[in-house]
Amino acid sequence: MLGGLTGLVTREVGGVVRRNVTVIVLYLLAGVLAAGAVGYALNALHTVLTLHYGAITASLSIAGGLLFASLLMLGIALYVKSRPRPDRRLAAAVAAAPIAASLVGNRKLGWRAGLVGGVVLLGLILGRQFAQGDDDDAES
Q: What is the pLDDT of residues 11-26, one digit of tens each?
């Protein structure tokens, strides 16, 4: 029985991994194609600006526009990073609550009561670890 269950789990995990790898490869290809398209668009813009204003002015205009866009993105990133993050300790404890509730539902509480306490404790520890990890990211 365990051999069949292990085989089923192995097939399911293998299918999920293959699907995720396929999606990541497709995202990477889309990113490469988008970068190529942006490059060609900038080249076309440079050609048009060269016809109207000259090569040096066209190059400086595109460089200034790209610098402005990068500074704008940097400002947005700094704003998003500086926003306070929500406390995740409560979320971890709440995620463990359904498991605890299903274990308590039975009349035999002996070892299950200890397991419920362990699940709640694990949820609190994991929540604390997640919260501490977020604080470390905010400082750097």
A: 777 888 888 899 999 9
pTM, two decimal places:
0.51
Report CA Rg, the chain. Answer: 27
- State the virtual CA torsion across 34, 35, 37, 43 in degrees, nearest 10: 160
Distance CA 139, CA 120 (A): 29
DSSP state, residue 84: P
**68/95 Cα distance (integer angstroms):** 44
Taking 70 as the threshold, does the pLDDT of residue 83 lie above it? yes
Could you identify the residue written with the tokens 């050609």?
A: 47
Contacts of 113 (CB under 8 A, 6+ apart): 104
